[in-house]
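Researcher: Please translate sequence to structure tokens.
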Amino acid sequence: MLRYTLTVVLTGLILFGSYTWSLGQSYGTSAGLRLGNNDQGRMLGFTVQQRLAKRLTLEGIVQSDFSYNTTIHALLERHRPLLSKRLNYYYGAGAAVGIEESWQKVSESMQIIRTYGNKTLGLDFIGGVELTLLGINFSVDYKPNINIVGRQPWYSGQVGISVRSVLVKGKKQNKKRRQKARRKRKSHSDGFFHNLIDSIKNNKP
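Model: Translation complete:
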């Protein structure tokens, strides 16, 4: 069922993204909700994406199953256009910390010991597809996690569906950066000419 749902969502994103070539909207900052699902259960989270440079974003995720598992993730992501600049695929990596349950196999007694409240630290990887349309960013991703400390099993993969609202448009962010760069160049230029004029005045007999 999950595989069928993901197939439908991905197909819809691709077709709708190609149809809305000129209607889509890039973003500088977006925030919203993320639903994560894996063999251990479902988690609901809050996600924020901030563009740092062209095609490079920083994503923060806080998610919980409101029972035994709560995790925080920071991911650096590279975006590439797919059919159009409004429809992207992306990939990246980062780190994760949290409080999680652990399932440890004891081979001698053939038992599985479950514990909770374990402080965990791990590495995250992510790959996904996103569509930004009319101020809303939709994405589907797969996020593997490799645990370093605190949890068994050491590997856990999670499928996520996110819906985010665009808080700052990409064009607005680019405009602010250009204005800042122009002010900086103007400041350096004015400083140079002021120093030159002062130097000429000081050298007058």
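Researcher: Any highlights?
Model: The two ends are 89 Å apart (CA to CA).
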